[in-house]
Specification:
The structure is a homodimer. By secondary structure, chain A is an alpha+beta fold. Chain A has two domains: about 140 residues, 60s Ribosomal Protein L30, Chain: A, CATH 3.30.1330; about 170 residues, Phosphoribosyl-aminoimidazole Synthetase, Chain A, domain 2, CATH 3.90.650. The first copy, chain A, is built from nine helices and 13 strands. Chain A has an eight-stranded mixed beta sheet. Chain A has a four-stranded mixed beta sheet with strand order 2-5-3-4. At the A-B interface, β1, β2, α2, β3 and β4 of A face β1, β2, α2, β3 and β4 of B.
C-alpha cells in the first residue's frame, strides 16, 4: 500500500522486515508468505476467537509510544480470551497506517509486539497493512483455546453467587484523566502509575484459565465495572448489589479519589481496567483464595448476585458503607 | 462508541439490532452476547484463517452503496479462503465508522452482509464497532476449513507445470477507470458490467475446494495477475511465462482495450480480480476441464512454469503472440 509514498518500503518488504519475524515458530503462519494461516485447537479443545480494534485519538493518544500502542492493541484482546478461560495461542493484525508513518515508528511497534509475544506465548499468524488518510487504526484478532464446551460465559450468574474482581479498578480512567491534566493535585509518582495502567493493560492471563471450574459467569472489565456487571446481569437474568467500599483501588487511585471524591464515579464506570469480573457460588470463596495465591493476582469479593424482575439499567445497585443504595449523578455517587 | 453522538443508537443496541441477527444459526457466536466466539473445525479438518481490511477512499469509493461495501469487505476474504481450497464457515467484523454514519447506511450494510451470508453459507460470529474521525474502515476475519494438512499453498509450483486462471482478468481495474471517467469511449452497458466487477468481487468458492487434489500452487488475484504470479514464483523458486493473448478477457474488457490498447497493461497488473491463479501438472488438463464444468467457472491455461535462477522481479515473462517477450513501460506492454 505504501509503494508510492516514499515514507515506507513497499508492503511486501514491510511485512518481510517487521512482521514475518513475529511469525517464526508457528508453522501454520507459513512465515506470512501465503494467503491464509492454519490454526487448529489441540485435541479436546475449542478455539476461542476475539477481535477488538483501537483507533488513534479515540482509544489511545496519537503520540503514545508505538511499542505501547502495539501492546495495548494486542492485550485488550488477550484480556477477553483470559476472561473466557482461554489460553492465548496466536493473533492476526490489520494495521491501517497514516501516510506519515515512519520506519522508526514501525520498528518500535514491531518490537512492542515481539516483547508481548514472549510474555504471553503467542505468535503473529497473518494480517494486512493498508494506508489511510485517517488516524492509525489497529484491529487484532486473537485466538486461544479452552477445553471443549467449557468456555466461560456471561450467562451463568445465579442469585446467591458472590461477585469477584481481580486486581484494582479505576486506574486506567484516572490515568487518562491525569494525562489530560484533570488530576492536578496528584503526585507525580501516583500519576505515572495510573498512566501506565491506561497505556498498558495487564490482562489476567494467569487467573482466567484457573476460573474454569469455579466461575458461573465472567467478563473482562473494558466498558466499566458497572456496565460490565450489567452485561452479566442482562444475559444471566439476575440483579447485583456491590458495596462501594469493597471495590479494590490501588494506592494511586485512592490518592486521586482523596484529592477529588467526585472521581469515584469515574473509577466505577470508566472502563479500560482489563480485570476479570466474575461470579461464583458463596462456598467457592476458599478455592478462589487459592486461585488468587497461585496466580499471584489479588481477587476481591465486591458484592452479591440477586434475583431480579427489574429493567436492565437498574439491575446493578451500588451500596454505601451504611447499606443504602447510591445513585450516579453528575456529582458522582450520591444517596438516592 | 456512539452513545454520545446522537447519530446512531448506543453500541449495544446497534449490535442487537443490526448484527446479532447475522449470528443466528451459529451456536458458537452466542448471539453476539458474549466476549468471544467458539469456532472449531470439523473432525479431520484444519481451520483456515484470513484477514483483510478495506478503507474508504482507498479500496472503495466513499459513496459506494453500503450493501456493496459490506459484501466487498466480506468477499475479498472469502476469495482468499477459496484460493486456499477452503470452505468458508464464519467471519468476524471490525467496523470503524465515521461519526456521520446513519442508521439507513447501517441497515443497508447489514442487509448486504445478510444476502452474502445466505449466498456463501457463512455466519457473523463476533466483532467490534468503533467511531473514527477518519474514513469508514472495515476489517473482516474469515474462517474456513480444509482437510487436515491439505491447505493449498503458494509454494508448490514446479517447472513444467501449466498456469491456469479462473474467469476473466482486468474487469475490476477497468471498472474503476470507467467510474473515474477514464474510459470515455466505452458503451454504457460494458462500463456498467466492469463497474459491477469492481464493486462486487465474485470469489471462486465453487472452484477453489475442487483444486485440492490437482493444483500445485494457488493464489487469489488481488494484487494483479503479474504480481500474484510473482508471489507464486518467489515462494516456489521458479519462473513463469504467460502468453498475453491467452489471458482471458470479458467482452466488456475486450471492448475497453480495443478503444484504448494502452489499458492492456492495467488489465494484467491492476488487481482486484479475485480470480484463482494456480499451477498444475500438464497432465492434469483434463481434470481441470472437468472442474471447470462442474463448478460452472471458465478456467484458462495462460502459460507455463519454468526453472529459474533469476531475480524475483524478472521471473514473470509476458509473451507476445509471436513468442517474443514484452516489457511493461508507461505506454503499456511493448517489445523489449
Amino acid at each position: 500500500m505504501f509503494d508510492q509514498n516514499g515514507q515506507l518500503p513497499g508492503e511486501f518488504e514491510l511485512i518481510a522486515k517487521y512482521f514475518a519475524p513475529l511469525s517464526e515458530g508457528y508453522p501454520g503462519a507459513f512465515g506470512l508468505l501465503d494467503d491464509a494461516a492454519i490454526i487448529s485447537p489441540s485435541a479436546g479443545h475449542d478455539l476461542v476467537a476475539k477481535t477488538d480494534a483501537i483507533v488513534g485519538g479515540v482509544h489511545f493518544h496519537a503520540d503514545d509510544p508505538a511499542d505501547l500502542v502495539a501492546r495495548k492493541a494486542l492485550r485488550v484482546n488477550l484480556s477477553d480470551l483470559a476472561g473466557k478461560g482461554g489460553i492465548a495461542r496466536a493473533y492476526m493484525l490489520d494495521l491501517i497506517l497514516p501516510e506519515t508513518t515512519t520506519t522508526a515508528w514501525l520498528s518500535a511497534f514491531a518490537s512492542g509486539l515481539a516483547a508481548d509475544q514472549r510474555k504471553y506465548g503467542v505468535h503473529l499468524i497473518g494480517g494486512d497493512t493498508n494506508a489511510t488518510p485517517g488516524p492509525l487504526t489497529i484491529a487484532v484478532m486473537a485466538f486461544g483455546e479452552v477445553p471443549k464446551g467449557r468456555m466461560l460465559r456471561r450467562n451463568g450468574a445465579r442469585a446467591g453467587d458472590l461477585i469477584f474482581v481481580t486486581g484494582t479498578i479505576g486506574d486506567a480512567v484516572l490515568g487518562l484523566k491525569a494525562l489530560d491534566g484533570e488530576c492536578p493535585a496528584l503526585k507525580a509518582e501516583a500519576a505515572a502509575s495510573l498512566i501506565e495502567r491506561y497505556r498498558l493493560p495487564q490482562p489476567r492471563v494467569e487467573t482466567g484459565p484457573l476460573l474454569l471450574d469455579v466461575a458461573t459467569a465472567t467478563i473482562d472489565v473494558s466498558d466499566g465495572l458497572i456496565a460490565d456487571l450489567e452485561h452479566i446481569c442482562e444475559v444471566s437474568d439476575v440483579s447485583a448489589a456491590i458495596e462501594s467500599k469493597k471495590v479494590p483501588l490501588s494506592p494511586a487511585a485512592r490518592q486521586a479519589l482523596t484529592d477529588d471524591p467526585t472521581l469515584a464515579a469515574s473509577a466505577l464506570t470508566g472502563g479500560d481496567d482489563y480485570e476479570i469480573l466474575f461470579t461464583a457460588p458463596a462456598n467457592a470463596a476458599n478455592r478462589i483464595d487459592q486461585i488468587s495465591q497461585s496466580s499471584g493476582t489479588p481477587i476481591t469479593t465486591i458484592g452479591r448476585v440477586e434475583k431480579t424482575s427489574r429493567a436492565i439499567e437498574t439491575r446493578v445497585t451500588v451500596l454505601s458503607p451504611d447499606g443504602t443504595p447510591l445513585k450516579l449523578s453528575n456529582k458522582g455517587w450520591t444517596h438516592f
